[in-house]
Amino acid sequence: MQILFITQLFQPEPNLLTGVEFARQMQKFGHEVQVLTGFPNYPDGKLYPGYRISFWQREWLDGVEVIRVPVYPSHDRSAFRRALCYLSLAVSMTALGPLLVRKADVAFVYAGPMTLCLPAIVLKWFRAIPFILSVQDLWPESVTDSGMLRSKWASALISGGCSYAYRKAAHMVALSEGYKGLLIARGARPEQVTVIHNWCHPAYERMIDFKNGSDLFNLNGTFNVVHTGNLGELQALDSVIHAAKLLQTADPHVRLVFVGSGTRESHLKQMAAQLGLRNVVFVSRLPLERLPDVLRFANLLLVHLKDEPLTRVGIPQKTQAYLASGIPILCAVEGEVANLVKRSGAGFLCRAESPRVLADAILSIASQPPETLRAMGLSGRNFYRENLSFSVGSRRLADVFESVAGSSRKGTQTALSLRKPEEIAQSAPFPSRPGGFPNIELFAPQHLDDAVTAHLAAFPGFYLSWLGRQFLREFYAAFLHDRNSVAFVASDARGRALGVIVGPLDPAGFFRNLVRRRWWAFGLASMNSILRRPWKAWRVLRAVSYRGESPPGPVRALLSSVAVLPEAQGFGIGRKLVSRWVEEVRHRGVTGCYLLTDAEGNDRVNSFYRSLDWKLEFTNATPEGRKVNRYILDFAEPALARGEPLGPLALANATQPGNTASASLKRLFDILLSGTGLAVLSPLLLLVSLAVRISSAGPVFFRQVRVGQCARCFRMVKFRSMVRDAPRLGPGVTRDGDPRITKLGRFLRKAKLDELPQLWNVLAGDMTLVGPRPELPCYVEKYTPEQRRVLQLKPGITDLATLEFRDEEELLETAADPERFYLEHCVPQKIELNLAYARRANLWEDLKIIFRTLFALLPGIPGRKARRSGATERTPLKIG
Q: 280-290 pLDDT, tens per residue?
């Protein structure tokens, strides 16, 4: 299951719930996690070292993908600047999120500020991603009670927006029973809300004995009352400072320790100085590993909040940490926190905002026997472990994720496990494709991030990994766009790439041309690597200046890289990838292949290639002194020389039609027309988007993998004209009257408006305006060697076949088996027309086809339907 976290705070910011540890826990449960957040600046409103605001940034923290978008950093007392911080992050996520994040099964919104619901709602509209809302604060109460907002109309506006977000959420997670009651009072259904208490940081759970702390703050020998966390308005700590004044006179042995920071920190320090307090210690915000320096000497932990309706139903996150620590608690607040402390038997209760009552309570507790206080602390720790711990809470949240994702898929089980491959195929959201596990398929754009992840995980200390994720991404992307290379992935039944293998057919000059084509991208990636490790800049320059080479003798293909996720190793995935790659290379007419791998400290990899009959040719040394083995695998005779049929994805042995100059002119023509078309038609595109979103459940766009030029797969985009999950509900072809087509979809198909988003594919270079319509991989695999010649052409939006076969759906309606009829009768004639176009392709021919297409779309034009006499099978196909 794919999970998207939408959160304001993420590491290195303090984040207890949706931090790296929680994301890693979800990965252990078999799920994939992606995080959408801002640049780190909490709690001081200053960017953390090593970060600077940019348009967007993708990074990996402990194996978790994190996408950061711009935010105005501010967490001071200014309501305007705080609002600007919240709104800027929401706007950035809303604008960039749909473009940057992958398709997810469920989104989890960790809503401190409710403005984070805006990107979640937009993702639900346009990407059909249901979202779960974790209600950490109740708005507008959290900003009105803290004094940040006093405008009644603004409060009413926020309240209305929150109610709308609650209605749109697939499920809500409340941190207390009090929060759940308020959400139900605002219109939520009881079954829509689950109470899951927050937990303390998992790393904190592992160090709660505090045996390693040192007395850096001179706390030994006194009775220390410790308050940790935010020093803000809601904590009402002025009363605690006044209580300290009373305690200084009554018992100098008692000391109050404030650990943390916040908007009231300077004010509290000034108060303590003015009152001449010697029993108050302020400790700045500490990293987690430094907390034992204070908590080892804590005798009592203090929870103090302003007596407001909001504080009575909420539970501050430090409460769970207090319970886990095994130290007794003094709770100076009524409501849910008091109930939790009382249920756990972990401490004492008193009234809030009363210096005299608080001072008397502390004096009374300080006089208790140490055994009594120790027993209270242990009672709280046991209660935490059994009811509130990270393992308990994360498992309950994972159950909610799976339930919501399963409901959106009509009950389909989504949890996967890489430990038993057979179980992956059985529990996948759709049946495994023929051939068993894993599925070996063409390397496509949607696999790029998975390929980079697999490489970094499989070879963390190797040269390419050292160059960085951005450099690796450019390296693997090169094989997507080069027709003289071979690249495959091994995917699970959900399409996630578990392993990747890539290599050029002729390595001589391949890398030089690669850098030449993408010089700006490799330049940026190289600069990034050099800035991280300036002392190894020469290695980066060597990598960029590498020109590629071939061993002496006949031309051999180079197996550049094969990588399998560590958790997927041991199931034969690497062996299947290498075998499939070698088979395809042999079918392309190459006489052999070779590879390079480290000779020392790499016994497992060397044994792997020897077991596949690769022969060690010789061992060489690099300029750095690294020993490298060169393995070769020669074929007795290439497949083409023996006259064997080509592999299912190989191209016919022919050259790309047209010369470089005409291809460049055609590409310029595509860019100008597609860019202009997207700009001019943007109002129409927006109207159609809204109509699709309103008319039926599901995403606005339909994306599907198609086979492009040189058998390279890409993801084609169209307006959705069918019901959700239509490919799983019927065959790949549609005919007139297909029940999967929506009412609006029939109009869009008739007017060809559903094809307009493909202008983006043209602008991106995956398609052209005029060229053969792209087919599904399952149909291309059935092409004959002669028919595969059409794959030398870049697919297009319109072509001669589209004009001839405009009304194919009506004709397929009469066929007993539409799919077979299409493959046996329609495909051969379409390919014949496209090959005829290729022989005379030029810009003038393209213009004529474009004008003929526009003319055919006009209503009331005689003869615009396909001719039925003599060629009844000539009609255009709709797939998906």
A: 999 888 776 67
